[in-house]
Amino acid sequence: MNKNALIVGASGITGSNLAEELIAQGWSTYGLSRNPNNNIKDLQPVQADLLRPEDLKVALADIAPTHVFITTWMRMETEAENIRVNGTMVRNLLDALSPTKSVQHVALVTGLKHYLGPFEAYAKEGFLPETPLREEQPRLEIENFYYAQEDEVYAAADRDGFTWSIHRPHTVIGKAVGNLMNLGTTLAIYASICKETGRPFRWPGSEAQWNGLSDVTDVRVLAKHLAWAATTEHASNQAFNVVNGEYFRWKWLWERLAGYFGIEAVGFDGTIHPLEAEMAQDASIWREIAERHGLVESDLNKLASPWHTDLDLGRPIEVMTDMTKSRKLGFTVYQSTEESFFDLFDQLRADRLISM
């Protein structure tokens, strides 16, 4: 098979790891972003703004991708704006690629907000689904930019004749700097600050999340899942959940994360303690830590996203994701969640983003 990939959002947590996976599998791989990623060997950078159709036409004029992977989005002030902007970005991209008719498959990465609701109504009463979450569950009767992105893919597929796949990871665990949704790195930064200041590593979320079952998605599993669905005929034109393949309880994992850093773990004490408030005054502390240990990034805001971690850990229900559909079709990759976090922490230390 002739496999020429265009990864949209190649500088992000999912896109950068997907690029490494596809290149390792022998794909010719282009990475499109506003600020191209030049740190991945053999990734061919493409600079373009998805909101500027003319820029896209010029940037993509000499590229004929067979497979397109959309891993990016833009957060706006309201869900109505999220829908307008993110739907437009997908439409502009697929319109720009339409004339060549080279595209055989388009993969779109969304997430569990498909089931739990958008930012404005995330995991609120009236929008709480049954778990484990399954792909056949209907859309919520509420505006959601994930639905708008999907609809743009479906419309372009009908027009141009390519196949598609939708990928719904849970919380993605992996390395990325400047990512808007980065729970693993956020917890590593929080733990590092606790260690340096002597503060307790206190659980920030809800009782339901502390005691209930949960799962996450290692970005390496997600990358393999994207490549699998794009090249497996019987996986075409379907939506898939994608997680590590095991369940855990945060009250079990929290102690282990604290142990990695050699700090005291404090569990749920009857009150939610949002990380956004807990870390609100930590920018100057982090600059001091970075200077003292010779770290390469002293800007806390480029590493941590406490607002997103609060969304995940503050949910009023346990959240587990069913993987039966992928398993029955042949995707059998499994990942230990504890090792997902520890591998990430080891990488952050090796890259001097957190201290030893």
TrEMBL record:
Alphabetized InterPro entries for the sequence: NAD(P)-bd_dom_sf (IPR036291), PRISE-like_Rossmann-fold (IPR055222)
CDD domains, A to Z: 5beta-POR_like_SDR_a (cd08948)
Source superkingdom: Bacteria
PRISE-like Rossmann-fold domain boundaries: 47-354
SUPFAM superfamilies: NAD(P)-binding Rossmann-fold domains
Gene3D superfamilies: NAD(P)-binding Rossmann-like Domain
PANTHER family found in the cross-reference section: 3-OXO-DELTA(4,5)-STEROID 5-BETA-REDUCTASE (PTHR32487)
The protein's name: NAD-dependent dehydratase
Taxonomic path: Bacteria, Pseudomonadati, Bacteroidota, Cytophagia, Cytophagales
